[in-house]
Every structure is written in C-alpha cells, then in structure tokens.
Amino acid sequence: LADEIRGKQSTRGIRAPKRKTQPFVGVVTGSISDQPNLEACYKIFNDFGIPFEKGIKSAHRTPDAMAEYAKTSGHRGIKVIIAAAGGAAHLPGMVAAFSKSVPVIGLPIKPTIGDGWDSLVSMTNMPRGCPVLTVGVNNAVNAALGAARILAGWDEGVKAKLEGYVDNAAAESLENDRKLQQ
Ligand code: RP5
C-alpha cells in the first residue's frame, strides 16, 4: 500500500491531477459532529499509508444513502468499515446488516447526554449472525489499529507499520518506567 501512487509530479513541475487510490477502509460517521473524534484514526491511516475514504451516512437522516453505501462497499473493494456513532447509535449495526460480509468496526462516540455506555452496548449487543467488532468509547486509535490488523493479514507493508507501532509503544513505556525510577 505504501507504494501506491497518490499523485504525480509532471516533468514540467506542474502538479498532475491526483490519481484516485483504491480505498481499502471506509470510515463513516452518523453526523458531521462525530468527525473531530476521527482525527486520530485518519492520522494512523495516513502514517501507515492505508488508503481510506470517509463519509457521513446517517442511519436516521439518510437511511437510503447509508444502505446503498453499505451494500456496495464490498464490490468497491472496501475490506473493512469503521462506523462511528453516538446516542442512538444504530449506524454500525445497520452497516453490518447491509454489507453482509465486510467486517464492521463499531466506534461508539460519547453523546451530549451520558457517557457513551448506551452507544457502546448498542454496538456489542448485536443479534447472533450480525457482528459489530466494537472498540471503546471515542477510541478512534483502536478502531484504526483494528482495521490495520485486518489488512495486515494480506499486506506486508501494513504488517510492518503495525509491528513498528507496537515496538515504539513498548519502547516508550520502558522509557517512562526508567524515568520514574530516577
Ligand atoms: C448520532 O447522533 C450521530 O452519530 C451523533 O453522534 C449523534 C448526534 O448527532 P448530531 O445531532 O450532532 O448531528 O446519529
């Protein structure tokens, strides 16, 4: 993936039009108000060189667009979907229902009322046969890393980035311990 060409510099120094890279991850939120919570997720995908697409597909406000997006995601080459929603967090479950075979990671967003527990439980308590792989409330980092782990099964570049990430986190933790002892 890291080798995918995102844009090309022409020989005259004029920037050629960006070639659209096939996205492997679809990130959808129920509302524009959820988007700031996804920044950490987008950063990881950019750092890892994972092509992704993002969109707002509301299960309540735009159910037809949401259904169309989910139904066509697999045919369009999307390997995993992150669906983020808060409050009445139906989006990941509906996306999982319509996409049929694409893994869906549910990211509960803390709503304006409450701590997000209701959003979390609505994503974990799916009926048998329709799983939503759910991460913690507002934990966009784990949503991104979870998607990267799915892709790492068939992409060596993503696997190497992930292992580097884990090794860096270990080194940082050991360094924090060392500092604490001083
Ligand atoms: C959910 O309702 C969205 O995912 C969002 O978290 C929440 C509130 O949406 P807004 O009223 O801010 O658009 O569907």
Automatic annotation (TrEMBL):
Q: Per its UniProt entry, which superkingdom is the organism in?
A: Eukaryota
What family name appears in the similarity comment? Answer: In the C-terminal section; belongs to the AIR carboxylase family. Class I subfamily.
| Name the record gives this protein | Phosphoribosylaminoimidazole carboxylase
- Name its species: Lepraria neglecta
Give the residues of the full protein shown.
391 to 572 of 576
